[in-house]
């Protein structure tokens, strides 16, 4: 059973699907107010389950308070407006989850960097890294006057070894370094910053890629999107939260250390 987040305010970027959606569900299930951001919005004519509004409703259904903000994280002005809304409504942020990411179209599975469109750099480093920085710039002033906060960058083992492509690896490595340096600057404010490495995760993108034959995954060892949310909840409450600030942490190792399991009761193991 996750510890309560009643009264806590969280922002999860890129929460319409995948890990972001799973994290939002977990934080909501623990009772948090969860602002979910993403480009896919019913207000813009989108339909189906993968919208910010649907994600917010799911958070509320699970026991939290879900608030949808349609936001393109490639638009700095839109990001500023999103965090201004949080400031106006609640005045502070307890947890920021930097998860937003842009999957190139078509997706990149292997190949050489000189064979890829240069645009994938902007997708993976621009949105997958720069957007984390921009969100943190706006979130930090809402966190530094309220000790105990946590910024979690969703990264990948690509920060330490080859996965998918050169651009993907550079983006994730930069996300890890960003966490270390932001942690240094936020230490005096008792705000922790970490970079989290999930393992293979059963997101919609990955399961679709497996079905097409583009990618392989061992489902017996894979993690659910919610498992990362459990790692964030446990870390937020941990007595050694600040001791871990600035580090790259695997969700699997945090599960073992803090005693939480995946949604099916398994204890995933670190595959770094």
Question: How would you explain this protein's 3D organization?
Answer:
The protein has helices at residues 18-29, 52-61, 76-89, 119-139, 166-186, 204-212, 225-237, 251-258; strands spanning 9-12, 33-38, 65-70, 95-98, 150-154, 192-197, 248-250. It has 272 residues and is of the alpha/beta class. A seven-stranded parallel sheet has the order 3-2-1-4-5-6-7, sandwiched between helices. Helix 4 links the parallel strand 4 (95-98) and strand 5. Helix 3 packs parallel to helix 4 (119-139). It is globular, with a radius of gyration of 17 Å.
Topology:
Layout: E1 9-12, H1 18-29, E2 33-38, H2 52-61, E3 65-70, H3 76-89, E4 95-98, H4 119-139, E5 150-154, H5 166-186, E6 192-197, H6 204-212, H7 225-237, E7 248-250, H8 251-258
Parallel strand pairs: 1-2, 1-4, 2-3, 4-5, 5-6, 6-7
Helix pairs in contact: 1-2, 1-7, 3-4, 4-5, 7-8
